[in-house]
Give the backbone structure.
Amino acid sequence: MEPKEIFEKVTEKFGGKAVELQEEGFRPAFVVVSPESVREIALFLRDDPALKFDSLMCLSGVDYKDRFAVTYHLHSLSVGHQIGVKTYLPREAPSLPSVDMVWPAANFQEREAFDLYGIVFEGSWDLRRILLPEDWEGHPLRKDYKYPEFYNGIKV
Amino acid sequence: MKARAEALPTQEMLINMGPQHPSTHGVLRVILRTDGEVVVNARPDVGYLHRALEKIGERVTYAQYMPFTDRLDYLAAMNCNAAWAWTVEKLAGIEVPERAEYIRVIVSELNRIASHLIAFGSFTADMGAFTPFLYAIRERERINDLFEDICGNRLTYNYVRIGGVSADLPDRFLEKTKEFLDYFEPKVPEYNNLISYNKIFVHRLANVAAVTPEDAVGYGLTGPNLRGSGVPFDLRKNEPYSVYPEFDFDVCVGTGERGTLGDCFDRYMVRINEMKESVRIVRQAIEQIPEGPVMAKVPRMFKPPVGEVYFRAENPRGETGIYLISDGTVNPYRLKIRAPSFVTMGIFEKITKGLMIADVVAVIGSFDIILPEIDR
């Protein structure tokens, strides 16, 4: 199914919660949705018989300097089409619902985004730091991250 | 009898398996909660090799990032090199000369054989049979020799470039590769006679940690791990890139031939069979490779257009996806590597529940994870 048709299907069902379609320069194209409706839209994308996005390829946090974003790259093994879903978050206290009940593959990648960007995924079954030590301060992939001089009293 | 059982203390034990443990294929720590020999819960703890490769990517140019991709999956560095090049070329719309694409496919498939040989060898060594490891290393050595002829390196090749490859194939390379394939092809049945259908080996693997096709898709397993669960999905066939549509090969899937569909034995067998398919691809590529240049014209100050792209390639350990955001400058704005082993570890806690401790080793080996790629 073409990105345009998918976007129309989502807007038909969720109205204003699907904000826009980013097509020019984006491969795959992104359906931009509002953060609080991520989980219901994810469920719809997975369960709708014409869409059937059963596989979450990649979940990623992004820092666009003025705001954060979380992107989901979806693929359907049975239908064979792809789409991206993107949601923008404010820089202050970014949080959105977790989708690990929709695609279990999301859990590890949500933990990664939490670890490196400080984005909180509400309702996640296990949200802890994954790559960095648990006592690490700050979130290194943020564009305004300051490199620490000391870690546990040791100069880095 | 009853009284004696009550006298025995049966408390759960917490055991650290790793980070330094021979069977974890690197620095992986598994926190085991055990009841006797039975695993109640096995929680993987990753991140010991974190080198911030994604953050580094935001500070170097597109071409400078190539050597870092070698350090992702060091057993399949050619595949990682090529995946990075394909991603940037997709973003910038660079046309690559056909000869370069054929060379990339030849080296990728040779590297896939080498990687599967290590998977096969170290897995059997984990299971207590050390001899097959020596057989596997012997064959892999010849592939390393071939790569040394190409680029001078034996592990981290840094051979592929954005727009082509760094140098054309050396003299007699194709003949030497053909000689290797003639030598290697009969070895695969030899491995099967040596170990694959050995009764003890089969008993260690069959019916252990079976992953259903639904779980495999839901948890994001890819590559041989997904196909081991009977899902016939291969990016080279289903989402063809480069010159893969030119070649005739089969997608190997698990069939549950010795036990349940998707068990450790199925995943192991998929890798063994895939080596034969890779041989077929390389043979066809050698027949069809055209003459011509091996490098497209790419400006020295390379600035791709503004945009976002997600590209995925079928690497030996599954789908290596790269999500790349360009803001039109010489450095990537954001670079996310979706490493197959990282996502695969997500299912680990679920399928190891109730297994014996020795089976946890079988699960790690059958998933063929590699730690530098998990930790990045």
